[in-house]
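User: Can you predict the 3D structure for this chain?
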Amino acid sequence: MHELPLVFFTVLGQSAVGIFLLAFISYQLKLSDGEQLKRANLLAFVLMAIGLAIGILHLGQIFRAPNMLAGLGRSPMSNEIVLCGAFFALVCGTIFFSYLKKHSGFARVCNVAAILVGLVFVWSIIQVYQLKTVASWDSLHTSLQMWLTVLVGGGACAVLAGVRKTGAIALSIGVVISLIAKPDYIDFVSHTDPMLSSQQTLFWAVQTFCLAVGLLMAVVALVKREGSSALLALCAGAVVIGELSARIAFYNLWAIPM
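Assistant: Here is the predicted structure, written as structure tokens:
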């Protein structure tokens, strides 16, 4: 699958934005401490770095990457690349300054800026795929599933990093909305392209199962103060795999009518 690098890039990038957002909210509400904030931000950095590294493979020839910036302001893809770079730079700045006690103010500024730029980055991804030329993508479901990954993937990873309550609430909300919207989405793509949609059943089934695991993870995180790190990691991994599976199905629905 040629678009597989984009699957990882978009899902991991959106999850990283979610972690940054939820960890900061949790810290501001005094539901988590500074160490948990650092841990969550570090996890977001790792996910974003992996997503970027894999996403670069989609370019084919890396040295041609600067050419994609020529359409900045006009091209959604160029905007996405610039915002991605800005978000990652601010993530790095946040982590760097957070470990320097004398520069905690800089860390806070970078943290807030990273969240704002990150949310615009997620929006820019949606603009790349909200295309009238691709019938199965020309729907509000495209926007919805991208934003839900921020809640679902970000929430699960936030719980793993120790941001339990805020992460679990976001994860629960994301899972419930996703499960409610799924039948309508499947019905939409089934009418749009019956042949392609029929080939995505397994991917959607995997996501549904993983969402159920995520909901269980959220409930446990809300009920119990402590939990097995290994079990949380397993559940968070399952949730991310579910989002990756759904994104594979999304890219598999790419078709331009002749």
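The chain has nine helices and no strands. The mean pLDDT is 90.
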